[in-house]
Design a protein that fits this description.
The protein is mainly alpha-helical and about 450 residues long. Strands 1-2-4-3 form a 4-stranded mixed sheet. A hairpin with a 6-residue loop joins strand 3 and strand 4. The longest helix is centred in the first third of the chain and has 35 residues. The protein binds zinc ion (ZN).
């Protein structure tokens, strides 16, 4: 029984030592006070917007699966493949042509839904700032870029599938991760500037403050860029990206306009955290494992569905089965939604606490959590949080900031003051609405894994 003692020791070290040091204010109450600044109307609207997003996610997957299966059942996939085999002959070109066909047809047929989600709904909730022509031009540019990148990626993946046969899921996952890594490196440099203009941030205290915070944490950046997100929406966002020594810190003009100095500092502390903690690498590893599992499960499901050359598909390397392959992969990734979200949320939580410690701006953190609440439900149920959230909830973030503030005050490292928001403080979208009776503003794009935004 000698093994029991070390086990007890290990178990004990997991127990939290809840010692009751007196705090200058109650973090729970302070969190409630911050949340109350939204008021019931804005809270209801934020919940409605965010919960709608759950269904949009499922609908998106559903549309992809239905359209893909239609291409199989109507015989279009087989027809296009046979025609390509007669005309371009080379396997790589057949796959490339099939990928262009598949990506185009599904994008065009799902356009009404894309329009509703990307344009109409954003305007309904007062989050978008673009006219339809502006939005449509950007949609077309993204469509073209997406078409080229997808076609190249799919073609390379099919070469791997054909060459490796039964072990393709291992090599295919590696190729996919390498592809994502390349995108993470290249998108900020070559693609993002197509949609937004990046200009050096005005010289001043805030810029110096951000650079000091970055360099204090070992980020080799010597410039801060501002990009005009306001062109598309009111959402606040920022990132730290790096490629071959071109490390750069970028923040949105909306963040500068809408947040206080401490709010901006806290967001930048969070982004610096993503960079310093090498989140791009760990996300690639963890999401890479998830991709490997999905790819490993794909052949069984594919072979079962396409049994006996149904729909004229010879095997999984046959481009005629491409829509079926992507229907299966879409289904598997939808089932894996919570795993994907928990991996990302784990990193976001780390960046949050890093940002808090780097900026020492708990009220700035609470303030920006409230700005994000314009389009993120603040208090989800535990199940919702687990399934749908790729960031900690607003409630969790503000509570974390208030715990931090209370303990730092108790330790004498933060000036004494009230726990909750400054007297009379309210998020700008609530103030605007009350004063003008106008619709509120709000959401922005959220680059996640690589770009590491908010
Ligand atoms: Zn983040």
């Amino acid at each position: 029984m000698r093994w029991i003692a070390p086990l007890v020791f290990v178990a004990a070290s997991f127990a939290t030592a809840a010692y009751a040091a007196p705090l200058p204010f109650d973090p729970d109450e302070a969190t409630r006070a911050w949340l109350a600044t939204m008021g019931p109307e804005a809270t209801e609207r934020s919940n409605r917007y965010f919960e709608g997003g759950y269904w949009i996610g499922f609908a998106n997957a559903g549309i992809t699966i239905v359209l893909s299966m239609a291409l199989m059942m109507l015989g279009w996939a087989r027809g296009v493949r046979s025609w390509l085999e007669k005309t371009v002959k080379f396997y790589f070109l057949v796959v490339f042509g099939m990928a262009v066909f598949y990506t185009s047809v599904t994008s065009i047929l799902s356009f009404p839904f894309t329009y509703y989600v990307g344009f109409m709904r954003e305007h309904e909730f007062g989050l978008a700032t673009q006219t339809f022509p502006e939005w449509f031009v950007e949609f077309m540019i993204s469509f073209a870029i997406n078409l080229v990148i997808s076609a190249i990626f799919i073609s390379v993946l099919y070469l791997v599938v054909r060459a490796a046969k039964r072990t393709w899921w291992i090599w295919g996952s590696m190729v996919t991760v390498a592809f994502i890594a390349a995108l993470v490196a290249l998108v900020p440099v070559y693609i993002s500037p197509l949609f937004n203009t990046y200009t050096p941030m005005e010289q001043g205290e805030l810029r110096d403050d951000i650079l000091h915070m970055a360099q204090a944490s070992g980020v080799p950046a010597d410039n801060v860029y501002v990009f005009d997100v306001s062109r598309q929406s009111n959402r606040v966002t920022a990132n730290v990206s790096g490629f071959l020594g071109t490390t750069r810190i970028s923040l949105s003009d909306t963040l500068l306009d809408r947040a206080s100095t401490d709010g901006v500092r806290e967001v930048m502390g969070h982004e610096i955290g993503h960079y310093v903690l090498h989140h791009t690498n760990s996300l690639l590893v963890m999401l890479g494992l998830l991709i490997t599992v999905v790819f490993a499960l794909t052949p069984a499901l594919f072979n079962w569905l396409a049994k006996g050359e149904r729909w004229g598909v010879r095997d999984i390397a046959d481009p005629a089965g491409m829509p079926l392959v992507f229907a299966v992969i879409t289904l598997l990734f939808t089932v894996a939604t919570p795993i994907n979200n928990n991996i990302i949320r784990y990193h976001e939580h780390q960046a949050d606490i890093f940002g808090l410690n780097a900026s020492r701006a708990p009220d700035g953190f609470a303030e920006t959590a409230l700005l994000l609440s314009e389009y993120r439900k603040m208090e989800p149920s535990p199940l919702e949080l687990w399934f749908f959230y790729d960031h900690p909830s607003g409630y969790q973030r503000i509570h974390m900031a208030m715990e931090w503030k209370a303990h730092e005050m108790a330790a004498g490292r933060y000036p004494m003051g009230p726990g909750g928001p400054p007297q009379g403080w309210r998020p700008d979208f609530v103030v605007v609405e009350d004063e003008a009776g106008a619709a509120p503003s709000a959401p922005a794009t959220e680059p996640s894994p690589g770009g590491a935004s908010d």
